[in-house]
Design brief:
The chain has 490 residues and is of the alpha+beta class. The chain has three domains: 108 residues, Dipeptide-binding Protein, domain 1 (Alpha-Beta Complex); 106 residues, D-Maltodextrin-Binding Protein, domain 2 (3-Layer(aba) Sandwich); 200 residues, Dipeptide-binding Protein, Domain 3 (Dipeptide-binding Protein, domain 3, Roll). The chain has 13 helices and 21 strands. Helix 7 packs antiparallel against helix 9 and helix 12 runs antiparallel to helix 13. The chain is globular, with a radius of gyration of 24 Å.
Length: 490
């Protein structure tokens, strides 16, 4: 009997894999999304959860911001640059079983510019004159004018395909075509998603992804060290990186991002409507010292663009640190020593900690910056919203190549400049890459000259994750955590 039992145990051991690969992951994020519809608001946290996970567009952009086929497997462009004919993938289903076809493309794009649209990038769709469906697998999009960035814009999260059946409920229970399907949202804590086993493309290695929201940097670092989190792709506690690097359990990856950290100014509110005051604030801030105080992750910038992009020009020394020049400009503009302004700061460490550093620098030129810390939902509603109730704030603008925000009829900076808008109109119509670059550089120079915001630095993307994980993006060209390409190794 003993010999039989031993043989049985040996056989069972031989028939059982020695190691079952881990197939779940818990990912940390500092900010919780205000909703889960990437076409329903501008918050980067929505995209970090959903883009390329739950939702997909006709195209996608890679880590170098180049567009590639996704739900459109190919396309042709007419000689005049006005007509795009997309050949759509067939057999694609939404998570609820609804079919993806040209009617969805037409609905998505028309909804994006509709009167009730809350899309954070409505301007992407304004050039579209019409969307036609000669058959379910073909979408013909006619533009009002040539738009050189059209394929790029259609690959961003604001342009993902939305089913008519679930458009009204995506903010709470998102339904897309992606490799993961929504499971549940425990508000204040986490979002869970499960592998879509009916996915049209390559199946992810991960069966379950959990995004946990931890706003406090110290708590985030503690959760990583304790193993409660497997990854924190945008790690908020740089002061702990040396300790984490010394621990072989973890990988620390420093990459680039499209994030531009700026001191946003309300150009409609005195005295910030005076360019001399805005330039004075730029001279009053020592960007290098600010970056060092926040852990050294970043590169000084002087306009709304980041190093690494082909169109980038270094304008970081347009307003060198010069407190005396700042005081002179303030005096010229009639701003007396002792002037009080309010800094309304959202939760991220770069804003809260950066605000304290900047307030100390402004004190040296006779400005008292009164700090008011507010929660993310308040910031979106009161600062970023239509009321634009602020003097100044600090925030990271993370959309790539988003020069359009200064050309909009409304944006929270309240910057209005006809010369800038005229250059921008030429920029978006340019089809030739060299012309696009030249015009993008003109726009950067104009922003550096006007300083509608004080452009501080391009943020590095600091990721921390378990050393057995593979596939997480090191660079952050767009707000995204592309979990379909992530896996565990021995």
């Amino acid at each position: 009997m003993k010999r039989l039992l031993t043989a049985t145990l040996i056989a069972a051991a031989l028939s059982t894999p020695a190691y079952a690969a881990k197939d779940t992951i818990t990912v940390g994020m500092q900010l919780e999304p205000p909703n889960l519809d990437p076409t329903g608001g501008a918050a980067a946290a929505i995209r970090e959860v959903n883009y390329l996970n739950i939702f997909e567009g006709l195209t996608r952009v890679d880590e170098n911001l180049n567009p590639h086929p996704l739900l459109a497997e190919s396309w042709t462009i007419s000689a005049d640059g006005l007509t795009y004919t997309f050949k759509l993938k067939t057999g694609v289903k939404f998570h609820d079983g609804a079919a993806f076809d040209c009617s969805v493309v037409k609905f998505t794009y028309e909804r994006a510019v509709g009167p009730d649209s809350t899309n954070g990038q409505k301007g992407y769709f304004e050039p579209i004159a019409k969307t036609e469906c000669p058959d379910p697998a073909t979408a013909v999009i006619t533009l009002k004018r040539p738009t050189g960035r059209f394929l790029f814009a259609m690959g961003l999260s604001d342009s993902v395909m939305i089913s008519p059946a679930t458009a009204a409920t995506n903010k709470a229970t998102p339904v897309g075509t992606g490799p993961f399907r929504f499971s549940r949202w425990v508000k204040g804590d986490r979002v869970e998603m499960l592998r879509n086993d009916s996915y049209w493309g390559a199946k992810p290695a991960l069966k379950m992804v959990t995004f946990r929201f931890i706003s406090d940097p110290t708590a985030a670092a503690a959760a990583v060290m304790a193993g409660d989190l497997d990854a924190f792709p945008n790690f908020p506690a740089p002061e702990t990186l040396d300790q984490i690097r010394a621990d072989k359990r973890f990988t620390v990856a420093i990459g680039t991002s499209s994030g531009k950290i700026v001191l946003s100014l309300n150009n409609a509110r005195a005295p910030f409507d005076d360019v001399r005051v805005r330039r004075a604030l730029a001279h009053a801030i020592d960007r290098k010292s600010l970056i060092d105080a926040l852990g050294g992750g970043g590169t000084p910038i002087g306009s709304h663009y980041v190093p690494g992009d082909a169109a980038y020009i270094d304008l970081s020394n347009t307003y060198p640190y010069d407190p005396a020049k700042a005081r002179a400009l303030l005096a010229e503009a009639g701003v007396k020593p002792g002037f009080v302004m309010t800094l309304r700061l959202p939760p991220p460490a770069y804003a809260r900690r950066g605000g304290e550093v900047i307030a100390a620098m402004l004190e040296q030129v006779g400005i008292t910056a009164k700090i008011e810390n507010i929660e993310w939902a308040q910031w979106l509603d009161q600062v970023f919203g239509k009321s634009t109730n602020f003097d100044a704030t600090i925030v990271a603008h993370v959309e790539a190549r988003d020069l359009d925000v200064f050309a909009r009829d409304f944006y929270y900076f309240n910057y209005k400049n006809t010369e800038y808008r005229a250059i921008y109109a030429k920029y978006i119509e340019a089809a030739d890459p060299a012309a696009q670059i030249a015009l993008a550089q003109q726009l950067q120079r104009k922003l550096a000259e006007d300083q509608p915001a004080v452009f501080l630095y391009a943020g590095a993307k600091t990721g921390v994750w378990n050393s057995k994980l593979r596939g997480l993006w090191i660079n952050g060209p767009i707000p995204a955590n592309h979990m379909a390409v992530v896996s565990w190794v021995d």
